[in-house]
Write a structure and sequence with these properties.
Number of domains: 1
Number of helices: 9
Radius of gyration: 23 Å
GO cellular component, one term: plasma membrane
Membrane topology: Multi-pass membrane protein
Strand content: under 5%
Keywords: Cell membrane, Membrane, Olfaction, Receptor, Sensory transduction, Transducer, Transmembrane, Transmembrane helix
Structural class: mainly alpha
Subcellular location: Cell membrane
Number of strands: 0
Order of helices and strands: HHHHHHHHH
Largest sheet: none
Protein name: Odorant receptor
Shape: elongated
């Protein structure tokens, strides 16, 4: 008799703790570090409360002040072209981070529902055999290390280098002489905290989104193997239930549609901002040699971000097409 696969969903426990299966799963574990860090930043969708919302609103207001003063620097008549280009890059990365915080606040309920499906309804990665998913997870981690290195190089270069040069991290203008003590120290600390927050938030959000998409990719891959095993090896057995595969495909399509609905406009704006930042940082590398490696870090980080998103979408598209072709020609 042919051996059929028994599918068992992860049962949701009574507590808020994640089941142990999530930590052991080759695909789902990627979401755990993102949850820990984003929860620390008070933006994790499943942990939204009045307190976290108030903290997020306070941070967004601070970003609003920062962006206003950066814009004043950009349009100031005494600002040269290189200085304006450098300020534009800082403006874009700060705007990227605040847009991510707003997005996580606005779509908290939808993202929470998707996460519940991923945690408790997605098939375990070893359900069709060992070693199906780990390679993809390792590639995401390697890509993330390269992406994070750009972000945190940006932090250390700006904080340490600017402090020794007695400059604030962002090029900005204030209605008072901010170079006098204690104004300089206060603004330096304020901008430094925002810089660390938005850099960590930006990179971890992208890692979270890549992890979410990689789980969808893993499910399509498992579904394709499920179709092979249940149609080619067990089609003559009465216990075989191909409807289960259909239900799983429908659920995955709905989740992908939800993600697309939430992020389509965001990714469009992000790509426009990334292209603008790449252009301004390329200009700075050519004309502002005194800025050192800072324009290169801008360029490296945003190019890595574009490749990061493109690779995730490309993998998802390939797996969806491969699953559809497998179902068509069985």
């Amino acid at each position: 008799m042919w051996n059929t696969i028994k599918f068992t969903d992860v049962k949701k426990p009574d507590t808020n703790l994640l089941p142990k299966e999530v930590f052991k799963d080759d695909a789902k574990w990627i979401l755990v570090p993102s949850k820990i860090i984003l929860k620390t930043l008070c933006v994790w969708p499943e942990s939204q409360s009045k307190l976290t919302k108030c903290i997020s609103v306070f941070i967004i207001i601070n970003y609003g002040f920062l962006l206003t003063h950066i814009m004043r620097y950009i349009i100031d008549k005494d600002t040269n072209l290189a200085g304006a280009a450098y300020a534009v890059t800082g403006f874009m990365v700060a705007a990227e981070s605040v847009s991510r915080r707003i997005l996580l606040m606005f779509f908290a309920k939808k993202i929470s529902k998707i996460l519940q499906v991923v945690y408790y309804d997605f098939w375990p990665s070893d359900i069709t055999g060992k070693g199906v998913i780990p390679k993809a997870s390792v590639l995401i981690v390697i890509a993330t290390i390269g992406y994070f290195s750009a972000g945190y190089s940006y932090i250390f270069n700006n904080l340490i280098g600017q402090f020794y040069e007695r400059k604030i991290p962002f090029k900005s203008i204030y209605p008072f002489d901010h170079m006098k003590s204690p104004y300089f120290e206060l603004i330096y600390v304020w901008q430094s905290l925002l810089l660390v927050e938005f850099d960590v938030h930006l990179t971890v959000f992208d890692f979270f989104l890549a992890g979410l998409i990689s789980n969808c990719v893993a499910q399509f891959k498992l579904l394709r193997r499920f179709l092979v095993q249940n149609f080619e090896k067990a089609v003559k057995i009465a216990e075989t239930d191909p409807q289960r595969g259909t239900d799983e495909a429908y659920k995955l399509i709905l989740i992908c549609q939800e993600i697309d609905g939430m992020l389509s406009m965001f990714t469009l704006i992000m790509y426009i901002g990334n292209v603008a930042t790449l252009c301004s940082s390329s200009f700075l590398m050519a004309v502002a040699r005194a800025e050192g490696v800072r324009p290169l870090i801008y360029f490296w980080g945003h190019l890595s971000q574009i490749l990061f998103y493109c690779a995730s979408g490309h993998d998802l598209g390939l797996e969806v097409s491969a699953t559809a072709l497998r179902a068509m020609f069985l």
